[in-house]
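Q: Hi! First time asking for a complex rather than a single chain. Here are the components, and I think there are four in total. Is that enough to go on?
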Amino acid sequence: MKLWDKGVSVDKAVEQFTVGNDYELDKHLVKHDCRASIAHARMLKKMGVLSKEELRKTEAGLQEILELSAKGKFAILPEDEDCHTAIENFLTKKYGEVGKKIHTCRSRNDQVLTALRLYEKEALSDTKKLLCDFQKQLGETATKNSTVPLPGYTHMQKAMPTTVGVWLGSFVHAAADDVLFLNAVAKMIDQNPLGSAASFGVPVFAVDKKMTAKEMGFSRVMENPLHAQMSRGKFEMTIASLLTQIMLDMNHLATDLMLFSMQEFGFVSLPVEFCTGSSIMPQKKNPDVLELARAKYHVVVGEEMKIKGIVGNLMSGYNRDMQLTKEPLMNAFEITKFTLSIMTPVVSGMTVNVEKCKKAMTPELYATEEAYKLVKGDLPFREAYRLVGEKYGGS
Amino acid sequence: MKLWDKGVSVDKAVEQFTVGNDYELDKHLVKHDCRASIAHARMLKKMGVLSKEELRKTEAGLQEILELSAKGKFAILPEDEDCHTAIENFLTKKYGEVGKKIHTCRSRNDQVLTALRLYEKEALSDTKKLLCDFQKQLGETATKNSTVPLPGYTHMQKAMPTTVGVWLGSFVHAAADDVLFLNAVAKMIDQNPLGSAASFGVPVFAVDKKMTAKEMGFSRVMENPLHAQMSRGKFEMTIASLLTQIMLDMNHLATDLMLFSMQEFGFVSLPVEFCTGSSIMPQKKNPDVLELARAKYHVVVGEEMKIKGIVGNLMSGYNRDMQLTKEPLMNAFEITKFTLSIMTPVVSGMTVNVEKCKKAMTPELYATEEAYKLVKGDLPFREAYRLVGEKYGGS
Amino acid sequence: MKLWDKGVSVDKAVEQFTVGNDYELDKHLVKHDCRASIAHARMLKKMGVLSKEELRKTEAGLQEILELSAKGKFAILPEDEDCHTAIENFLTKKYGEVGKKIHTCRSRNDQVLTALRLYEKEALSDTKKLLCDFQKQLGETATKNSTVPLPGYTHMQKAMPTTVGVWLGSFVHAAADDVLFLNAVAKMIDQNPLGSAASFGVPVFAVDKKMTAKEMGFSRVMENPLHAQMSRGKFEMTIASLLTQIMLDMNHLATDLMLFSMQEFGFVSLPVEFCTGSSIMPQKKNPDVLELARAKYHVVVGEEMKIKGIVGNLMSGYNRDMQLTKEPLMNAFEITKFTLSIMTPVVSGMTVNVEKCKKAMTPELYATEEAYKLVKGDLPFREAYRLVGEKYGGS
Amino acid sequence: MKLWDKGVSVDKAVEQFTVGNDYELDKHLVKHDCRASIAHARMLKKMGVLSKEELRKTEAGLQEILELSAKGKFAILPEDEDCHTAIENFLTKKYGEVGKKIHTCRSRNDQVLTALRLYEKEALSDTKKLLCDFQKQLGETATKNSTVPLPGYTHMQKAMPTTVGVWLGSFVHAAADDVLFLNAVAKMIDQNPLGSAASFGVPVFAVDKKMTAKEMGFSRVMENPLHAQMSRGKFEMTIASLLTQIMLDMNHLATDLMLFSMQEFGFVSLPVEFCTGSSIMPQKKNPDVLELARAKYHVVVGEEMKIKGIVGNLMSGYNRDMQLTKEPLMNAFEITKFTLSIMTPVVSGMTVNVEKCKKAMTPELYATEEAYKLVKGDLPFREAYRLVGEKYGGS
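A: Yes, that's all I need. Here is the structure of the assembled complex.
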């Protein structure tokens, strides 16, 4: 039974159109909704809406769901619509009245929002951990090869000498920028939206947002209920921007690695277990993992775009459109986390081919150095540049 | 067993990262791959690679898969990677040698491409049918209400009088533009890519692309194998543009319907079975279907963007990145078809509230008409405009 | 004086915010607006709104503007807002009454729309010509080098042998697909929107859309005025999709050329006049033109996205938002035309380094051929594949 | 003369294609480049490359340019390519040798990057100021109308009672989120890239990045030169994400204001000086400023997308593609700043129509309140919900 089912028969297709794959996505939200529901129930107890015994039952029920869910045994069926209804139905069925009371002083709108924010906080924390692991591994591989020479390219042309250490080290610094951004996003979203109800707060009852914030680990409270609701999609699009930023580093590293492992360069060799073969060409060893890491940057950008498109031109207050920001957000998180976790062993497993690197250090890479030595000998730079330029001809 | 499995143990995570959800998406491709494989097998027979008996067996096997698949009983497991391997494995297991021969003279690259193009041709045809149904229903509802007056708005302000017939009729014409575009896209992609192999054609054997084209119903052949491969993603992005164009009409109609069914307008009432309730507000009747139709335009735009991002900056020849264009394309098709199919009954079921429409025809809507009557009486337009403007209060 | 100026003082900033750079963009529209205005004036004459003498004066005035504009001497000032007002003001100032009458039976909305569609028709025709020139040049260079061998790459790894002829030829075929799409778009937009006025047609007077269509060279008429208005942005987004498709070919060709002209490949040399130097490195010869051609694909995608974002969630009838689709459209056209015109001489001027191409034809490129020879000798493909695979070292 | 001009005649079209409108955009960069060049010159003096007298001359020259530029009198011509060359040419022409020396120990790549980062720091600071002004004004208008009742809408349907104070207050909170994000971005980009040269640092000489950082007011130094170069585009895309976030608030406020000022609502009236008229309809008062503010959100999203597309799939080291991230970034800044500055007086000038707001407070808005009163009287929520739902029927 749907929460809003008041007897009108609703066409099956409408159900499928509106529910979409929420019932699948929501497996990510069950534990967060339980956590939020426990906080909410405790507040209802304090407010006198639930008795001590009712709270005990509610907590026991939610605890049971948490345990089932951890074992992958809490099913959300299409007819449940989403995890929130599945949870309420479970409680009502097994614990009676308390299931009917738990929804007092909240709306599905703020319930979803709260569970999502808890999910996001956890997913950001997971992402940060994976990003730091990746950064650490990069640092180790960079250090190990810090003095191996490498041609530096600009405009895809040999430019000046550099080292494998500088090259890989640049990604260590890039990851540090990402961590900084991640911390800021984590701080921005760390606000309790519970109590905003449908978008305009809870009438009659005085909800205690600070209490639920404390229970759930939010450091601030969203005082204005409409602000809370309109942060839906907006915070998500900014999280997606962060994930895009992280994925750009993956894209750049994958691009470099694919180029540098081409037969024509040979600077690095990829770990064989990260490559695949061809169905027609027996000799192939293809860097599929890297190609997909490169492409997934664009997938995350597309997810970000969905969110940015969906939330535009909407009037204040909840709009169902916002529901469709959930999937792109979750997809962006899953992709980013998976890509980080797979690029780390790529970096640890790759081999730097020192001889090939050395052989690639051809004379024109040192042209700027030559010019600068003339400058040191007191020629103005523009004249030294012209002199050396003539020597390397074609240029 | 993977096609490219030559003994190297491949990390489970790599498998999951590279396979992704292809094994799920490919349920859409099974029948198309079978059809293409039958065409391919017949050509192999003609070339002498398969004997008459081997062709019979192959066709029987593929027919069996087609029937299993139609009943939803042909499983593609994650360890199969995709439908193409699942099909080859099924043949080999049940029919022996022939399974090992069917892949002669093709690569998974052109095999996937061919199945995709057959899928696209069918999906375009389905979309066209749904679009024409929608257009027909719109035409009927427009005709039925052709003389009901309606305020015409510009800049979201009452502008000039119009009718429900003109308003809904505008979407009939819009759909006609879409059909024109759809036909062009269908024509553009109607080219047989089979025989392009990995990207560079088939060595040693002379494949007969015209024969397979005829078998599969393509009207032209892709002569250049690299052209065939590089059309991957490119044709898909243009199909996505078409779907975006169609979805824009859905977005606009949904936007109008939601506005005109607000209590403040009341021009139309939505069929109750397309609305849902609220978990907190007992009085609500929400146009969720329309909100989602509006939002899904942006989702399709996001899918289009993914494809456009993925295919940029790639060198010629197959790149694994291209695999990731499959999901956005299929998703865009599914969304568009579903939205069309649900908007048709919305249009047939909606009620035009004639009295409310009439009541909304306030005098300022006729200001231009007044001015034009003065013009007819020989006043230059700019002076008539000024006179009437003053009457309606400078606004 | 603004057309809508009825004495209210409008803040300078508002003017700048609303006018934007329309007065600059509109230099592209002057001739098209004049052409449309002549057609409109002739219809007004036929309707009796203009006398024969007034028509003569109007035509003389518009002809004068056409000539001034062709010489770059018809100025549109920020205070004119746009070319339409500049033209009307010019007529009124120099020819008196007729300037005040020309706006009868039309609105700025359909006036802009008509001029835009004429601009688009011309720009599409220009684009087609440039695309065909490019295609022709590609064909010539491909033919000249048709037998030069070239490694074919998949997954950025050497895969199978191909030729420069096949490689460049693939772009000839790609351009043919683009022409097909271009023709369809040209057909879709070839509809006369004049007479749709503000969005709801012209009251009192019966405008003759067929007459103006014939005068302006449109092959069809937009019967429904709201359809005409709502095609604004929609047709433009589809034109932008076409331009994106064309630019993708430029992006791919530039990507290939940059890679193949790296020192590590050396398959082609770029014409020196299309390269630039470095301010610090005296030896550099950078393929800036190609880098920019590659990047401009993404710029056009961004312009397309602007249009697709702007037109979403808008209610039927003109919305000022639509004005902002003009700049991205024009920018996309300018970029595409310029890129086509500069890539043509790049293709004609590039040198194929036959020796380097030959030297790159290493044995593993022929592995598939070897396997296929075994197949011809009656080994099932999968076994031949395994045998040859072992020879080339499992890789 | 171009910096890289070494005698090769470069086709005029190539110049136009590569320079684009940099020479126009760079008027925003002149002062920042001068500031960076002064810092650089002081370091060169400390390193002994410039004498005391040469430094004096250089500083005088740069000071002169700063003053000319402040008066709008420092011209950058197309043949200069960009402001950096224009500045160097000016110095060389007027001060001789020193102009030729200033480019020692830097490349145009890090020179542009440094000027851009200084520009961005200033533009972020300007944006923050405008955002805070906007927030302050919103707060005042919210407070002034804090108790005026307003229907709260969800799903574009009347939902629950709220107030003008809550509605406008929600944007005050939203702006606070933006400030938080802005501060984080400002911190992320506050790193000195000067000394990274072409992408691989400066050979022979030991540049003092800390000294120039201090001179220019950067709080940190980019130690890794390749990190510095690859932050180009990446930092810019994240700045664009921030601007998109801010513009979303503008979009939402504009959407609300346009809806609430429709005749059918009448909750607010817009200041007349922010509206425009129609060329055909004498009675119109159109909210063009708001329509454009709404649309400009999508324009900024498009600019963001350009950057995100351009930087993908690029190998490490400077690529000319990066140049094309400059215009979208600057455009996004200009749009955001202008929109903020025009929305502030819209908020201060708008009128809340108290009577119309009160009249709109129809009974169904209080349905949830009724249900909650029953809950307080001890009915479980789901039963109270059903009872009240029946009363309001249609729901």
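A: Confidence is low (pLDDT under 50) at residues 1-6 of chain B. Let me know if you'd like any chain examined more closely.
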